[in-house]
Request: fold
Amino acid sequence: MSKGNLFIVTGPSGAGKGTVLGRLLPTMEQLQYSVSATTRVPREGEEDGVNYYFLNRNDFLNMVDRGEFLEYAEYVGNFYGTPAGPVDECLEKGVDVILEIEVQGALTVKSKRPEAKLVFIIPPTFADLELRLRSRGSESDEVIAKRLEKAKEEYSMANHYDYIVCNGEVEQAVEELRSIIKAARCTVDRRINLLR
Reply:
């Protein structure tokens, strides 16, 4: 049995990563979403253990001290991290794992796991990104400005990625991501045993 593939999906806040993954995940077998931990406050409709593990700052930092994260970072005043145990358990069982994390964390994981496939999701234009952030209605102008400034930094890191998916039409973005995952499942190193 082959080990699972590790996919890391990143993009600026407002790119629609969650929407794309929300449509993709129920339609693909052997693909597990990795639930990240965060110190940020849940948005309306988000559930602990489903969207994120919502932790207070002290609990999060205690997990950091114990080395329980594959990666972690501070982003716009909050901590985010990927618990390593559940990811490794799925990969060992041959199940593909998909992480939805920010750029800094993605590059950290790639340095530790060079076989990981990095996917950068963006909207068609930067103006679309700002419109999406404002339409949420959940953040102040100051927070939106910080997110847009951070997005400019993130865009500059896209050349470190394996794939870019443009999320102008959600279904098209879903199909592009599905194609990336399917192609990774068909590489020679994963299928060479079929020739034996």
